[in-house]
């Protein structure tokens, strides 16, 4: 009988043939990471080219795992966008901290299903500690329940599910038991510049996008608190005590602007559940220089944020934060005879999933690596880079910065929409940096989103120099 290999004091079992594929993956990963400071950000092949390289008849026989990984690396390399590069400023996508990346590798290797306490005590413990650290770092109500979900959209879905259940329960309706058919109408109020994922979450919850009361936004995308008060007052006159949800935002996707604190106070005055979409902006709370932006919003009934944006953990990570943890458990929890449960809520009682990866390991590692000072300096560094982009791009001829740069977003317009689109396309083709086009306030814009811990002052210098050169070439 062969003895089972025992781990050493560091928890690592000795090498054997089964690790060969991992060795290939580790070497490829290190090569990729080492290439980031110098490689182009853009992919050099499109989806059809990569598909052609990967495609072959379904094999009739097994293939050795190391060979499979070598084939995958060779085929995928040309189709990879260097999202972790310090010169990537597209959409709002963070990089990956070293400890979070390593912890994510371990997460896959450990292969823990983080849904049950007994199913993975380690996975549950990592989430428990990381949730407490998160609430401390962002100065959130300590009694809040925290669900570890895939990202900002599912965080909003989860929070609004808890909100829907609670506001209906206040008027005597159990939506978890009786559904929406015949239920009192839930009135939803949201700003004109809400993120599209809010609409998707409402749609998933059966609340219907056409029923949302759209409140005007100002020139920076902030909800008009006065208009919200008028709308809520009218609704109260027409349907006193009606169940209400108000959705606010911390960090407009174009301007980075934050809804005013007064909007939350007005909503609470009319008994509404207030949800805050803080996908990237909620992290301003970690910086004393920016905490005023979210001062009042942190006391909302629920908040959604990403970890794979500002916190720089790998993808598939976000937080649904609900001040009334019991409301979260009622909306997401379940009982089944085959589950091993006790009196303590299992992790799946805070998320829409039963089976999922143990997201807490990477989050715990990121917060442990950064600490309060590192998190503060990272957030302040993002904001400082954004200020520099705004100052230097805004000084170019025929270039206008359209937003007040209060956080990490910069929206730049050029002489006309055609020039903006041509520049965006030319930058992506050139490859040194990546910035994404959009439409805001009736104009085509180039968005610069700073949320990567790898971004250095030199990366910003190279990005600005490249944009300046490409713009000059376009103008002839």
In round numbers, the mean pLDDT is: 92
Taking all Cα atoms into account, the compactness measure Rg is 24 Å
Strand share of the residues?
A: 5-15%
For this structure, the CATH topology of the domain at 102-366 is: Aspartate Aminotransferase, domain 2
The SS-based structural class is alpha/beta
According to CATH, the homologous superfamily of the domain at 102-366 is Type I PLP-dependent aspartate aminotransferase-like (Major domain)
* Uncertain spans: 1-18
The CATH level-2 architecture of the domain at 102-366 is identified as 3-Layer(aba) Sandwich
Side by side, the strands of the main sheet go 1-7-6-5-4-2-3
Main beta-sheet strand count, sense and barrel state: 7 strands, mixed
Total beta strand runs: 11
Q: Estimate the helix proportion, in percent.
A: 40-55%
User: Which CATH class of the domain at 102-366 applies here?
Assistant: Alpha Beta
N-to-C SSE series?
HHHHHEHHEHEHEHEEEHHEEHEEH
Separate helix tally: 14
- Described by the principal axes of the CA atoms, the overall outline is globular
Please characterize this protein's 3D structure.
The protein is an alpha/beta fold and 476 residues long. It has a domain at 102-366: Type I PLP-dependent aspartate aminotransferase-like (Major domain) (Aspartate Aminotransferase, domain 2), CATH 3.40.640. Helices cover 41% and strands 11% of the residues. It has 14 helices and eleven strands. The strands form two sheets. It has a seven-stranded mixed β-sheet, sandwiched between helices. A four-stranded antiparallel β-sheet has the order 8-9-11-10. A hairpin with a 2-residue loop joins strand 10 and strand 11. The chain is globular. Mean pLDDT is 92; it is low at 1-18.
């Amino acid at each position: 009988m062969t003895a089972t290999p025992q781990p050493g004091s560091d928890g690592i079992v000795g090498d054997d043939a089964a690790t060969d594929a991992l060795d290939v993956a580790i070497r490829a990963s290190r090569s990729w990471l080492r290439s980031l400071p110098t490689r182009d950000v853009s992919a050099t092949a499109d989806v059809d080219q990569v598909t052609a390289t990967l495609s072959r008849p379904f094999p009739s026989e097994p293939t050795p795992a190391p060979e499979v990984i070598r084939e995958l690396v060779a085929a995928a390399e040309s189709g990879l966008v260097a999202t972790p590069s310090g010169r990537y400023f597209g959409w709002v996508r963070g990089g990956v901290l070293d400890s979070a990346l390593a912890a994510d590798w371990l997460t896959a290797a450990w292969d823990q299903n983080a849904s049950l306490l007994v199913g993975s005590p380690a996975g549950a413990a990592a989430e428990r500690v990381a949730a407490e650290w998160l609430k401390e770092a962002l100065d959130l109500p300590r009694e809040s329940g925290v669900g570890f979900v895939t990202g900002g959209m599912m965080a909003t879905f989860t929070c609004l599910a808890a909100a829907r259940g609670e506001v209906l329960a206040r008027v005597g309706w159990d939506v978890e038991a009786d559904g929406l058919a015949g239920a009192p109408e839930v009135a939803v109020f949201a700003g004109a510049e809400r993120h599209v994922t809010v609409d998707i979450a409402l749609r998933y919850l059966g609340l219907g996008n056409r029923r949302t009361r759209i409140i005007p936004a100002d020139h920076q995308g902030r909800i008009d608190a006065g208009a919200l008060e008028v709308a809520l007052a009218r609704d109260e006159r027409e349907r006193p005590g009606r169940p209400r949800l108000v959705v606010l935002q911390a960090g407009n996707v174009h301007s980075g602007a934050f809804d005013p604190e007064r909007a939350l106070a007005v909503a609470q005055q009319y008994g509404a559940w207030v949800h805050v979409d803080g996908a990237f902006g909620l992290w301003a709370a970690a910086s004393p220089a920016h905490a005023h932006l979210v001062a009042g919003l942190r006391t909302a009934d629920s908040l959604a944020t990403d970890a794979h944006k500002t916190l720089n953990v790998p993808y598939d990570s976000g937080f649904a934060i609900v001040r009334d943890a019991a409301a979260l458990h009622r909306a997401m929890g379940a009982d089944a005879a085959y589950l091993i449960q006790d009196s303590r809520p299992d992790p799946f009682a805070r998320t829409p999933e039963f089976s999922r990866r143990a997201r807490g390991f990477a989050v715990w590692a990121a917060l442990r690596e950064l600490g309060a000072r590192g998190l503060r300096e990272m957030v302040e560094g993002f904001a400082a880079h954004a200020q520099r982009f705004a100052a230097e791009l805004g000084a170019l001829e025929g270039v206008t910065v359209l937003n007040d740069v209060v956080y990490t977003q910069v929206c730049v317009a050029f002489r006309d929409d055609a020039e903006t689109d041509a520049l965006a396309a030319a930058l992506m083709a050139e490859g040194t940096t990546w910035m994404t086009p959009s439409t805001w306030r009736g104009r085509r814009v180039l968005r610069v989103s700073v949320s990567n811990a790898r971004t250095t002052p030199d990366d910003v210098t190279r990005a600005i120099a490249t944009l300046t050169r490409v713009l000059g070439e376009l103008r002839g």
